[in-house]
Design a protein that fits this description.
alpha+beta; Nuclear Transport Factor 2, Chain: A; 45% strand; disordered N terminus; binds 2-acetamido-2-deoxy-beta-D-glucopyranose; Cystatin_dom
Length: 135
């Protein structure tokens, strides 16, 4: 319990969200808009989920996270990220690209505007893609 409080304190201080403790229940904070200078904080999370999100794209082509366009954060027994981003379609074919080869797929041929809702508990290396959609 002590270590969880410790990490929550780190998250609170690093993203500066307002939070309150509701009795014995989870810590739930308000949703905060991250300033563009802080969009980089979600990049490792997005890259960790990139292949999972690409698996949901109904396309034979590999997609890469291209640019974070908007980020909201919320403290919920960890942190919840609401991310709007450009998912770049490349010319690499999924069925012909292995995990190592993905790094070479950087030629964006088309931009898809996507949104991901992620719940992360970084201290146990856990991140769930709660919602994902592209228009
Ligand atoms: C990979 O997918 C493409 C596009 O769907 C298809 O034309 C091609 O035959 C596939 N290649 C292999 C090796 O399955």
């Amino acid at each position: 319990m002590k270590s969880i409080s410790f990490f929550v304190a780190i998250i609170l201080s690093s993203v500066q969200v307002y939070a309150f403790v509701d009795g014995n229940g989870p810590i739930v904070g308000g949703i905060s808009n991250a300033p563009p200078d802080n969009y980089h904080i979600v990049v490792p999370t997005m890259l960790a989920l990139e292949r999972e999100m690409d698996g949901k794209m109904n396309s034979p082509f590999v997609h890469r996270v291209n640019k974070i366009k908007d980020l909201k954060t919320q403290v919920v027994a960890g942190i919840r990220y609401y991310v709007k981003f450009d998912f770049g379609q490349t010319s690499c074919l999924k069925n012909a690209t292995n995990a190592v080869g993905i790094a070479q797929c950087n030629d964006v041929t088309k931009i898809h505007k996507c949104e991901a809702d992620i719940w992360e508990q970084a201290w146990i290396d856990k991140r769930d893609l709660l919602n994902f959609k592209c228009n």
